[in-house]
Amino acid sequence: MIHAAVNDYIEIVKLLIAAGASLDLDDVQTTALMFATFYDRSEIASLLIAAGASLDSKDENNGKTALMFAASDGHTEIVKLLIAAGASMDLTDEKNQKTALSYARDRGHGEIVDLLVANGAN
After folding, report:
1. Which of 3, 33, 87, 118 is the most buried (most CB within 10 A)?
2. Residue 35's domain spans which residues?
3. 3-state secondary structure string, 37-53?
4. 101: closest CA among 68, 73, 66?
């Protein structure tokens, strides 16, 4: 699932979901949703979210969530998907104690800052 998410193999992700593959198996505590988010694979992120992937899992390296990756890297469409799906906006990472809002602000992603604030992020 992770390899398919990273490489934007949409049809393979669909087949794996249909076959009942685990959505939250991880590679060093980084889920397929996190990889899809990091690589800006919005269609794959949408498929994983719709299939029930865990929204608020944290990666092992920094304790970042998919929303933090999306906000940090300026992936607005994925931020919208995660917010709509109910991702927690006020979790902090383990390394820097930063939220998705902090990452977006620090990286100059004003549209994402506005989006997060408009949806209740502190």
Report:
1. 33
2. 2-118
3. HHCCCHHHHHHHHHCCC
4. 68
Tens place of pLDDT per residue across the chain (122 aa) = 888 988 999 999 999 999 988 787 655 578 899 999 999 999 999 999 999 999 999 988 889 999 999 999 999 999 999 999 999 999 999 999 999 999 999 999 999 999 999 999 98
Tokens of 68: 């933090």
Here the CATH number for the domain that contains residue 51 is 1.25.40.20
Q: How many domains does the chain have?
A: 1
Mapped onto helix, strand or coil, the DSSP state of residue 15 is helix
Query: Cα separations (Å) of 96 from 55, 63, 81, 89, 121?
Result: 20, 9, 25, 16, 18
The SS3 call for residue 107 is coil
Question: How far is 109 from 114, CA to CA, in rounded Å?
Answer: 9
Length of the chain: 122
22 token code pair: 């685990």
